[in-house]
Write the structure tokens for this entry.
Amino acid sequence: MSTININKMKVNGLTFTVRTAGLNNSGNLVILLHGFPESSLMWAPLMIKLAEQGYRVAAPDQRGYSKSARPKGYQNYQMKLLSSDIIEIAKKIGFDSKFHLVGHDIGAVVGWTVATLYPEFLKSWTALSVPDWPAYLWALNNDPVQKKKGSYVHLFQHKFVPELILRHSHYKTLKDLWEGFPESTIHAYTELFSQKGALTGAVNWYRALLQLPQIEYSPVKVPTKFIWGNQDLAIARGGVNKNKAYVSGPYQFAELNAGHWFMEFNQDEISNQIFSHIKKYDD
């Protein structure tokens, strides 16, 4: 059975914690991007499955989540920097050809950015839950349902307040989000966000998105699969429906009867969805 290793990789002047599996395999590399409020731990079951099918797999704890990759100032959490980290991690692994990319939640926004800025590096792109940034931003500004679901994004723009709310009563708000997760996972996430600067680093992703100029998001040419759960607590249908306008390459959309936490509650179904897309573009 394949095992998961935890590595330290220094790229872009920062040291990232990166979970890996099957790096001695001969298959293509698959990089998995976590969202908020999770870490690369969320991908552990999928990493094992991918490695056992011959893939090389890497899942970094991204900026703010890795203890030695928490630069101060939200300007250091721009999507162009987060996406550069992913390309440099792939190079650090020693992978000089195209790889598959999968991202969930705001990690999907990182993935959309990688697909926009670095299409030459990707064999395929699988987005979970969150549409491309222009589609989401349109919905956040124009769709009443998304405005309600995404109200936390505006809350996260304030100084200090989001961290105080998230830390209040022993991380009650976060623990409510993690309801039904394994106790060991909840403990690991609580430990992570208890570290100095971790909450601020995570929230800074959102501050950078709304308070700083973004890259120009041109239509994505990479073969793309977008998977969304119609019971998602954070993402409404408005931006989801608009997303296809921002993809010019091969595009597949899968709507699941599911919520937001795919890997925790829909592991087999979501794994099969990811496998089918990756294998289609393996050559």
